[in-house]
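# step 3/5: fold
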Amino acid sequence: MRKALIFVALALGSQWASAQQSDAATVERGKYIATAADCAGCHGENLAGGAPIASPLGPIYASNITPDTPTGIGGWSEAQLRDALRKGRAPGKGWLYPAMPYTSYTGMTDNDVSALYAYLQSVPAVSHQVRATDLGFPFIRPAMLAWNLLYLKEGHAAGEIPAQGESAERGRYLVEALGHCSTCHTPRGMLMAELPDQHLGGAFVGGWHAPNITNDASGLGRWSDQDLTTFLQKGHNSVAVAGGDMGLAVSRSLSHLGDSEIADIIVYLRQVPAVASAALPAAPSTPAHVDPDKVEGPITGWRNLANNDTLDGAVLYQSACASCHGLDGAGGAGPELGRLRDLRSAHLNNLVQVIAGGINLKIDDRHILMPGFSDQMNNEQIAAVARYVRSTFGQVPGSGPDEQEVANILSDKTPVSWIINSAAALAWTGIGVFVLLVAWIVWRLFCRRKP
């Protein structure tokens, strides 16, 4: 009897230990899913939310997804998290806006949703009441029900294509479902839904231009696999530096994936149908030559730029940029400018954003930092620097932004369809017509009943 009890105790202990190991493995898998899905990119490193997500309709505030019950998701069940991820419906909010990329997350597997739920319930709870999102009429949450009926394909990430081979299948899951790359890199149509025929072909978001990442020559077609690997893991290569939200995605998500996952992503991206976008001028075959004897003396100290009214792009560049990029743009502490895609791109957003806001990229133990100059230069001066570096180092003649274009880019005036611009007027007109129609029907019925 005693031996039997000992045997039972050992068996129960073994089962308990196994269950503990299983739970720990599930949480660890959930942490990986949260990293690959870049949850921290919007919800913050502590996942307590609150940051405004730029949209053409107005700011959308990221939710608190820590297990705090009053302000976070501590009271959510796994089924409720699954509904938020796959259907865009959440407790206490109703229908979500697709700034939360449920049109991509809907492709997540049951096991990964379960693992993510276990992880989110294990992180430290943070009491943080996030500001309510208010986009104004008619962009109210119940309207998302109709939008979802049109554009949400539950269980299938937006834009995903059949993939050939196991590596590409894994890459598709990382790119389309977890990584939700199409949310930024695919242009949107009249009702703000992604355009399938331009999948990953480049789009404007938050004042930046998310470039074409298909295999077309205007996208990644001229990048080697090593170029792409370096960019995804380090945030920069010889022709590009990740800024804005892409910098955050590399810092908080992509740089933490393994070599095999990055390789899978590349295999899939090579299979995505090529989408032609604005052609990118070739990098100059020879670097620019700037004669130092013909250079006007620079302003002393880049911090004093705000106190100088010069609009000479060359002078501004020498004061603010040459110490890192070189007088001739050949690089040094910073990259060689003539090779950078954003400097030669037909879309000026990223060049302007970097001059104004800089680069702040943390990868592992490295910190890539370029100061922004929006506090030292006005919009006209930023435009002058952009024109100078494009024409001199990018050798793109006669092109560059003016003061108004810089103002539009920095204020995030993302172009939207006339339907979105006129949505309020159209909605009120529709309501007015409906009211008049009902009144007319009631009047006709009343007239028929009169003797």
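# step 4/5: annotate
The beta strands are 52-53, 60-61, 89-90, 94-95, 203-205, 208-210, 359-363, 366-370.
# step 5/5: archive (pending)
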